[in-house]
Specification:
The protein is α+β, with helices and mostly antiparallel strands. The protein has helices at about 5-25, 35-55, 60-75, 90-100, 110-135, 140-150, 150-160, 165-180, 185-200, 205-220, 230-250, 250-265, 275-295, 300-315, 325-335, 340-355, 365-375, 405-410, 420-425, 440-450, 520-525, and strands spanning about 430, 450, 455-460, 470, 475-480, 485, 490, 495, 500, 505-510, 520. The strands form two sheets. Strands 1, 2, 3, 5, 6, 9 and 11 form a seven-stranded antiparallel β-sheet that branches. A four-stranded antiparallel β-sheet has the order 4-10-7-8, with no helix packed on it. A hairpin with a 2-residue loop joins β7 and β8. α5 (about 110-135) packs parallel to α8, α9 (about 185-200) packs parallel to α11 and α10 (about 205-220) crosses α14 (about 300-315).
């Protein structure tokens, strides 16, 4: 009590930095053979080169733009869930919004958004090293980090801008704290706080917490359960703070619905999910018996429990769900396989990245080209009917993002397709390119009343042979032919340029009978777009 708090904190920080330095330097390269040094150095160098190239050339995934669109919403004064659809916990988007504040609209914003992910990727690798070093030795730790880094699923998912990065970082840091000996109340509190941050980033944290508790009970019994009380307190802090924040924004009910109820309703479209939930307690009991008999450690028990829990309880499984357990798998592989096999597997996975990235061909151009066109075609505040927020800076008239769960609910009749009504209500004149992810009713409407001008579509229609056309979205329109604006009579009066047209059928009589004609939203034409000369079709 005589030590000033600030001095004590500084001493602890210096002690931690010293321990970190010593742990890193404790890896004695002299233990490696000359061939192993060469193999490790070569593979590590190739990994770094592949990582940098993939950062700029690996294709953008739709989840990336969806997350960034939600983060942009905070900068635009929109409240997540209440004003802007999302079905993920909010911590990642709130933190990302600080990255976007003050930044101008740019077509390649996703490349910039990927840059901070490198830091989170590095933290996960460091956490893997620390865990492996504590359980085995620095030799195993180094190869575990390299093996994890080149694993195709981990490599590709961690290139992308997504909430899974923050989730994985919080989890691995919590594991680092838990694996420290002894697990003091202070460390228990910090681990709980980190897991609370993970829960505020992804609901999959619930599976990880179940895994950690069950693995601890299997390996250590329940005699140390009292040490979890500080952890439970830390676990509640961040979710409680976010709950109070959204209550203040009058968006608590929306958060509960879209993060919990909306996602839970996916189970209604999975008719066999009840089988896994019935089998789960029996599978856990079997694992408990096997783990006790074989005297499994915390690491293999955690891997087995997570896999069983995920497959039995989680309604929608994807490769990224395994990101949090991949460091453990890498450690177990390196610790239990001959070093030559580990080197061969690492080299094979590294070479396979060329296959999964199409030879590292630049696949980011397509999205950047579309974004360039979106920023030319529209102005801030003008809506765009996209799928999941691909245009990032523009609001969507249809509230829900057309991601997996939304489309499952649409197919099951739990959600109504109101795209036609919403597009008309919002006076939305720009839409994403046609594709199968649009629900049938909305897709038919957009096909009938929007024209392709390149990577995006604009409200308009080709004229029928008798000159008639239908306007679905009221607004200012122009009549076009291949050379530019057409000449003739519109609705019985001479056509002299852009005109305000209301919903309904109209007729245009051209002075050049037989020419191909189209009606198009006038601002798009003034901004350099026409359905007769598609722009940005080539990438």
């Amino acid at each position: 009590w005589r030590t000033p708090p600030l001095c004590y904190t500084c001493k602890r920080a210096v002690a931690f930095a010293t321990a970190l330095r010593d742990s890193v330097l404790s890896y004695d390269l002299a233990r490696l053979s000359r061939r192993e040094k060469l193999a490790f150095g070569t593979l590590a160098l190739l990994l770094i080169v592949a990582r940098v190239v993939a950062l700029f050339r690996y294709r953008f995934e739709t989840d990336e733009s969806q997350h960034l669109h939600v983060a942009w919403g905070w900068t635009a004064g929109l409240v997540q869930y209440r004003d802007l659809f999302d079905n993920h916990p909010p911590l990642f988007h709130l933190l990302s919004s600080f990255f976007l504040r003050g930044a101008s609209e740019r077509a390649d914003i996703l490349l910039f958004a990927r840059a901070p992910m490198l830091v989170l990727w590095g933290i996960v690798l460091w956490g893997t090293w620390v865990v492996a070093r504590r359980l085995y030795d620095a030799h195993v730790a180094a190869w575990s980090v390299l093996l994890l880094a080149v694993f195709p699923t981990f490599f590709l998912r961690t290139v992308e801008y997504r909430a899974d990065h923050l989730w994985n970082v919080c989890w691995i840091l919590a594991v680092v704290v838990v694996f420290a000996r002894p697990l003091t109340p202070a460390r228990s509190f910090i681990a709980g706080l980190l897991l609370g941050c993970a829960l505020a980033t992804s609901l999959r944290t619930s599976l990880l917490v179940i895994t950690l508790l069950l693995a601890g009970a299997i390996v250590y019994g329940v005699r140390h359960a009292w040490r979890l009380l500080p952890g439970a307190l830390g676990f509640a802090i961040v979710p409680a703070a976010l709950a109070l924040y959204f209550m203040r924004l009058d968006a608590w009910d929306e958060l509960v619905y879209y993060v919990f109820t909306f996602n839970a309703e996916l189970s209604q479209s999975r008719v066999t999910i009840w089988i896994g939930r019935i089998l789960w307690p029996f599978a856990i009991a079997a694992l408990f018996v096997i783990a006790r008999k074989k005297k499994l450690g915390l690491l293999p028990a955690s891997v087995a429990l997570f896999v069983v829990t995920l497959f039995c309880l989680w309604p929608l499984i994807s490769p990224r769900d395994f990101l949090a357990i991949m460091p453990f798998l890498a450690i177990l592989i390196v610790a239990h396989l001959p070093r030559r096999v580990v080197i061969a597997v690492t080299a094979l996975w590294l070479l396979s990245l060329a296959y999964y990235t199409d030879g590292f061909t630049n696949r980011t151009d397509e999205h950047i080209t579309m974004m360039n066109q979106a920023l030319r075609l529209t102005r801030p505040g003008e809506p765009v009917m996209d799928l999941k927020g691909e245009t990032i800076y523009r609001p969507r008239p249809f509230f829900h993002a057309l991601e997996t769960i939304t489309r499952a609910r649409l197919d099951a009749g739990l959600l109504r397709d109101t795209i036609p009504e919403d597009v008309v209500r919002a006076k939305c004149h720009v839409a994403q390119a046609d594709g199968p992810l649009f629900p049938p009713r909305g897709r038919e409407f957009l096909r009938a009343h929007f024209l392709d001008v390149g990577r995006l579509r604009v409200s308009g229609q080709p004229l029928q042979p008798d000159g008639t056309f239908t306007i679905a979205v009221p607004g200012e329109y122009v009549l076009l032919n291949e050379g530019g604006e057409a000449r003739g009579t519109l609705d019985g009066t001479p056509y002299g340029g852009a005109r305000q047209l209301e919903t309904g059928t109209h007729r245009f009589v051209s002075v050049n009978p037989g020419e191909a004609l189209a009606v198009l939203w006038a601002p798009a034409f003034r901004r350099g777009h026409t359905p007769f000369h598609l722009r940005d079709r080539e990438f």
